[in-house]
Predict the structure of NADPH:quinone reductase-like Zn-dependent oxidoreductase.
Amino acid sequence: MTATHQALWVDRRGTFRVGPAPTPTPRPGELVVEAHAVALNPVDAMPGVARRFVYPWLRLPTVLGTDVAGTVVAVGEGVSRFRIGDRVVGFASGQERFRNDPAHGAFQHVVVLAADLTAHVPDEVALTDAVVLPLALTTAAAGLFEPDQLGLPLPVGTPVKAGDERDETVLVWGAATSVGNNAVQLARAAGYRVVATASPRSAALVLGLGASAVVDYRGRSAVDEVVAALEGHTLAGTVAIGAGSLSRTIRVARRTQGTRRVASAYPSPVTAVRRQLARPYGVRVSAIWGGSPARSAVGPAMFRDVLPVALAHGRYRPSPPAEVVGEDLASIPAGLERLRGGVAARKLVVRLRRDPDPR
Ligand SMILES: NC(=O)c1ccc[n+]([C@@H]2O[C@H](COP(=O)([O-])OP(=O)(O)OC[C@H]3O[C@@H](n4cnc5c(N)ncnc54)[C@H](OP(=O)(O)O)[C@@H]3O)[C@@H](O)[C@H]2O)c1
């Protein structure tokens, strides 16, 4: 009889149901992980119709979720970096077009991960904290480092010493978001000065992650204030996150010296129009896909080279802070409902304990 474990399935109408899934064995280059924590992302909280628009290839029913942390229970051929029992965090790629496989979705007790998209979690970091990272990290890294986005040089393992920083600035608009928290930290790790936007409730968090200046994005004068904060510095590129971020960051890029590249993590139907309108002013707009590092050199660079070292030395913060909103798979839909209502500088996380399959 095939072994099974419990998974949270979603169907074509967006209805969730906990039920059995076949327990996988890893293929070459893969790990199988027992999930102890999963994090919830806005993309998981989309209604079924919107999901079909964002993931038209997705075969349903499937298992959603991208962020998983747990312990390794099986190691595939050719994987030398991990052993059974290791504490890890990884990017579950089940929804990506190239994968389209429920076994790789995060919302279940046993998850398949690509070893290249998995990092060790040091003992002093809780799995419920580490799990806030994967999709927000890959989205920020895609925007900053993919050659068709801002194309910045990747961070090196060692921290940039004061005085050795680049004389260039990255603008992170919407820095209080999960993606923004990672964009600030990664840009700093790559040696850039960071100017950010966030509302006053989140300004201290964003400054604590390394931003030099924080402007309230909601103010009428936000664009002028950001331009002032950038004065005397060369702009290396902009990551635009959140509703209204693209139009305003294009206005900033037009008024500053440096690279007029804007990578948008908030692509909408008007993004293509804005991209065309910005072009005559030398502003190059690109749309970020957070899963692209799963197929490029950027994902392995993050999970293999940057994250494990930075976490072990306390140089990278799993941020925004986790808020545990449930203890089992069945509590995920209520957590997604809460996410739809909006969260402020928090990542909603569900802790999992493996239930023996009742069958
Ligand atoms: N393209 C991709 O592949 C991809 C991947 C992941 C996420 N995303 C998108 O990126 C965005 C952020 O997702 P997330 O999970 O990082 O968000 P999140 O953690 O849920 O963001 C919460 C924060 O959003 C900030 N915010 C709300 N409205 C804003 C606005 N109009 N402009 C700037 N900041 C705003 C608030 O900051 P304050 O506290 O400062 O008010 C709040 O604290 C979402 O639109 C999401 O769909 C895209």
About this structure: The chain has two domains: 4-132+321-351, 139-287. The first helix runs from residue 48 to 54.
